[in-house]
Amino acid sequence: MDNLEKDIKNGLKYMHGTKRLLYGKKYYPPFYQTNEALYLYYPLFPLNEARILTVASSGDHVLEAVFRGAKDITAFDQNHFAYYMSALKIAGMKGLEWDEFMRFFAYRTKIASFQEDVYSKKIRSYLASDVQIFWDTLYDEGFEREKNKEQNQLLILDPSDLNVSSKSYLEEKNYEKTRARLKYINYHYIESELSKLPKVLDKNNPYQVMLLSNIYDWLGDIRQAYYPDFIKKKLGPYLDPNGVCVAYCMFHTDEYESWNQDDPIFEMSHCEDEKNKMIVYTYKKGNN
What we know:
Blueprint: H1 4-15, H2 38-41, E1 51-55, H3 60-67, E2 72-77, H4 80-95, H5 98-104, H6 116-123, H7 129-140, H8 149-155, H9 172-181, E3 186-191, E4 207-211, H10 221-225, H11 227-235, E5 239-250, H12 259-262, E6 266-272, E7 277-284
């Protein structure tokens, strides 16, 4: 990305505890795992062979979409650190065997190992040059040092309530399949907040699926009030005629049913099993 020097400077500030967490801004620590049960709601949508737009975040959304068969993936995020975190996760899958990946990204331990020797020997070569410089600098400045594991958590947050089953691509039987598919993915990254996406997307290359996670929760009261209208009128033109936009999903109840009172543009789905429950609100362009 274009702000490498500033990104590194802010990364070091977080890592050393000299910068506060400000969620929803251009710089804030990303989770290194998603807290969504992706395996519950991704099967609801036509991802196979699809061109999709998704949040970047930890990289889990991208890799789950790869496992589900998406062929052209555009990831976006306003958090500058998400670019480096998602790139590290994707490169990690390319360079690591399943058990190594599970250890490196803390799917088997409470705190991610992020071992420097694993990074340098097996992951680094799969990263773009700017991402290499970012992580090289942070490792040189103390990231992952054995005595400072907690220091890592100042930069990259640990969602402690997660379990491996929230992502299908992480099952051992699916890992190699996902890893193989990565070779054939057309992948793009956009550094942008949601409200500015319509200025940078291409109407000549519409998406079959958009996956917006729980971005709604971070918009603030004023922007939230216009969210349904934004989905339909601002993002709708970038969907295929029969495209779908997952406008909201998270572990909430039906508190957002008011969205449909005046203009019922969203379909609501309940996805649950014995472990998780999610509410998913979907805008289907072909229904309007």
